[in-house]
Give the backbone structure.
Amino acid sequence: MVFGSLDELIAMGGHGPYVWAAYLVTLAAITALCIAPLLAQRRQLREIARRARRDAVLKGAAAAQPISPETSE
Amino acid sequence: MWAYLERLWHRLGSPRHFYELSARWLPWLWLLAGALLATGLAWGLLFAPADYQQGHSFRIIYVHVPAASLALSGYFAMAVAGVVVLVWRMKMAEIVLQSIAVPGAVMCAIALFSGAVWGKPTWGTYWFWDARITSMLILLFLYIGVIALANAITSPVLAARATSVLAIVGAVNLPIIKYSVEWWNTLHQPATLKLTGDTPMAPEMLQPLLLCIAAFYVFFALVVILRVRVVILEREATSRWVRELAQATTARSGEGN
């Protein structure tokens, strides 16, 4: 490592704020790019499963109770 | 060999097969992207020697150049996908085009931001309207235009065609960005890396840079694949395999109720 101490590493010879801003913003952006599609995927799968269950319930109800009045009597 | 490649191409062209195949690549991509990013950035930040003129501010190069490179390559890939969409009407190309826009825009924003904070200690200003910086800002606007256009049109097929046109027309900006530092007298320095000829950079500074560029490419591929998978689920939401997958996944994670 080219830095002798933690203070030197943070200061970067006076350029610390610029270097650290660039790296921290990049790391934050990279992290966000990774997490966003994972969350979206989970949301999507849950929503699709919910719709599939609802359709299954509707289908089951339709099969159990014929809608037309003639057949019910 | 050729038959295998052809079969692979056809399988990748089918959303379902892409979804299944990519699931197998993902663990390796996560591992590779994480390892390369951690090594490359730590090397650049902690171990590369300071520049004799710029001091430590030059370390910004290790995020600036890879991000800028990906912003350009990402847009180029989007334009290529756009051609495939318009000529062959390939569904996977529509999905890929849509999935590149956001990570590409983020890379472009990182390049602009890291350039600004590098400019302050080096040139004495965060921003300067020179050809390189301005054309890069236009690239960000093009990315935002693609994202906005895709969101504005509800039909996925029509949205893909409209964004394809924008992506292809906008690609004219890419050579302008690339050669801006040669065509005009810019404050921005000329390219550090050259595919041909000698690179005017010390090897102990160059090696971490190449590693960081490779890391960003792998990371970008990972993010695009993750996004492609979400779009596939979205567009195939009513198909049987997606429904079964969704029910199996949510039941397994105990969120079925």
